TrEMBL record:
SUPFAM superfamilies reported for this sequence: FAD-linked reductases, C-terminal domain, FAD/NAD(P)-binding domain
A GO molecular-function annotation: oxidoreductase activity
Keyword set, alphabetical order: Oxidoreductase
UniProt organism field: Microbacterium rhizomatis
Protein name listed in UniProt: FAD-dependent oxidoreductase
Amino acid sequence: MTEITRDVVIIGAGAAGLTAANDLKRAGLSVAVLEARDRVGGRLWTDVIDGAMLEIGGQWVSPDQDALIETVAELGLETYSRYRDGESVYINAAGELTRFTGDIFPVPPATEKIMVDLIDRLDAMVAQMDPDRPWEHPDAEALDKISFEAWLYEQTDDKEAVDNIALFIAGAMLTKPPHAFSALQALLMAASAGSFTHLVDADFILDKRVVGGLQQVPLLLAERLGDDVFLGQAVRTLEYSDGGVTAISDASTGSAGTGMTVRARYAILALAPVLYDRISFVPPLPRLQHQLHQHLSMGFVIKVHAVYETPFWRDKGLSGTAFSPYELSHEAYDNSNHGDTRGTLVGFVSDQHADDVFRLSADERKQRILESLSHYYGPEALEPVVYYESDWGSEEWTRGAYAASFDLGGLHRYGADLRTPVGPIHFACSDLAGAGYQHVDGAIRMGRVAAEAIIGQARA
C-alpha cells in the first residue's frame, strides 16, 4: 500500500477532475488524481477499432461551449466542421421517407405549425430559467411534478408533433423515455444549451469535432500533471473530518499495481453521482445527500459506428443527417473523420429501444440496427467494413449514457443541494452542470468551480 500526502485528492480523471487538478496545481496546491480505469478521459474515449478511429464517447463541440472551446484552443488542438452538405432525411410513422433541408421535419402543415408553436413556447419558458438555478423558475414546482410527455400532451393531441418534440430531449439528450423525467428537467436540458431551438438545430448542437479525437483534451491535461495521475486506483473508502480527508483505494481489476492511501486537506469527487455509492464514506454522508443521490439515474443509449469504404450517401445528395422517432435508430449523422476517404455513419439507439435490442444476440442486434440505418440511406448501409457499438451501460465506472438526470420531482426538491460541499468534500462533473450540462463543456466548468472554491478556502 502506497501512502502519500497532498493538498487535494481528486477522484476521477475525466475532464472535470483533470481541469480541477490543473487549476489547483497552477495555484500552488499539490494534487493526486485517482482513477479507477486504466485510462484517463471518463466518458471521453477515442480508440482504433479494426483500423478505424472511433469516438466511443463524447465528440462534438458547439458554438456556445465556451469552456470547452477555450480549453481546446489552449491545448493547441484543431477542430473541423461536421459534414452537412446536402439534404437530411425524415421517416414518419407510416415508414415514408422524405428528404428535406432546414431544422423543421417535413410533416403535414398543421403538425408543422404545432411544432413551431411548441418550440416557441419552450424557448419562452427556457428564457425564464437560469440553468445554474433551474429550481428558481417561476413554475418550477408545477413543471417538476409532470412528465415532459404529459406536459406536451397538455399542449396538443397531435401525436407526431409530440413524438418529434420529445425526441430532441428524450432520445437525443437525456436518453430516457419522455414519461420518465419532468418538464422542468427538459427545460434545464434546453437551457443548458441556450435554448430549445439550439437543440433542434443539429448544425448548432453538433457543430465541430476535434482533429484526432476529443479524448486528447483529458490526455493532454493529464500529461501536464505527470506523476500526479494514478490509474487503476478505485477509491473504496473516503474518511473525512474538519481536519481533512483520507482516500483509500484498491488496485482495480486487471491492474498490476497496489492500492493507495492519500491524505489531503480537500477532496473532489469528479465522477458521476450514480457511482458515489461505490465509495464508503466515514462518517456516512448526510441524510440529504443519501436521499438526493437516490433520485438521480443515468440514461442509456447505444452509439453505433458504421464505417464504409466511401461516404456513399453523399453521392445521393444526402448530408448524412437523419431523424425519426419511429425508427430503431432515432437519429444518425455523417461522422467521417478528418482527412479520411472512408465514410462513417454514427447512429443512436436510445432508452427502451436500447434495452430491447440488448436482449437479442449480438448478430441479430447488429442486423436490426443496420436495417434501421438502411431505411435512411439505402441498402448500402447494410454492409459496413467496420461496425462497433459503444455500450456505456456495461461500463463498471460509468453505468449509462450520457449523464444522470432526476426522476419526477427530484430537480425542484434537491437541485439546489446538488453541488453543495460536505465538509472538505467537493463535487464536480458534467452531471452537475448548468450551462454545458451532460457535455464536456459542463465538466470543465464544474472542474473550474470546484478548484476555485478550494483555492479560496486554502488561502483564507
